[in-house]
Predict the 3D structure of the following.
Amino acid sequence: MFGFSFSSSKRPFDSLSEQEILGLAISSEEDDARIYLAYADQLRAQAPQTAKVFEDMAEVEHTHRNMLIEMHRDRFGERIPLIRREHVRGFYDRKPDWLRKNLTLDQIRTEAELMEKGAYRFYMAAAQNTSDAGIRKLLGDLALAEQGHEEIAGMLGEKHVSEDAKTEEDEGVRRQFILTYVQPGLAGLMDGSVSTLAPIFAAAFATGDTWSTFLIGLSASVGAGISMGFTEAAHDDGKLSGRGSPVKRGLASGIMTALGGLGHALPYLIPHFWTATITAIIVVFFELWAIAFIQNRYMETPFWRAAMQVVLGGSLVLAAGVLIGQG
């Protein structure tokens, strides 16, 4: 019932008058220009050349808006009806600002391309819904303009974004991703995977009880995750270091720390001691190799050096836990 009530409050596109189609087109061009300017503001620090492209694209949208306003003034006068895309059933949507803030550079470029394709489909449908020759011609011209926006973006890119600049921007985005997510997450994964080995396996061999071992592993993993998360978030606000939001870094570190410890704690839900222990050791093996892979993939550490460091260190901690538990 609620879904029906919500959808019925929107106007069918076919029911719009020619004046309302112009009003909808004007508000849509204004929204798209604001979105492009928001992208430009968001990217200015890390990708200034691409930000300039979006500023120019916003200027194109303003030009389209002015053309539509002039057509409305000639046909219907000064009062433009207030109608927006969210008032029309089946009209192409735009994401709200808070959902666009976390988009990557490539995702923003893709989003802009989808925006232009949606605008093209709107103008083609709108042109079919009007009998006024002047309005129909303008809407058809704007449809062609939107269809060519991908080429316009390409020309603007050639004007403002050289291949070297684009590569530099992409590298800057990758570097920021590593600083904000990979480094804290990797530190957390290493801490959770390695530091919890000794208490978990010591408890396992000391008690021989899988449920008690699981509870100890669970508490150690969650406690370490909370500690690492708060430490990462509190020790650096990211303003001087450029490492990004402390909340994001804290979450990355805390979650990966907890997951690193839970990986070899969860097998102790198995009631049979040796089955649980062998499973946990296998999980530890994969955890340590995963850490070595991430170090090689993102930190450019030679793989075998990373493997030797992590596997050797993890094996020593594991052995210490077993020896302490058997003592």
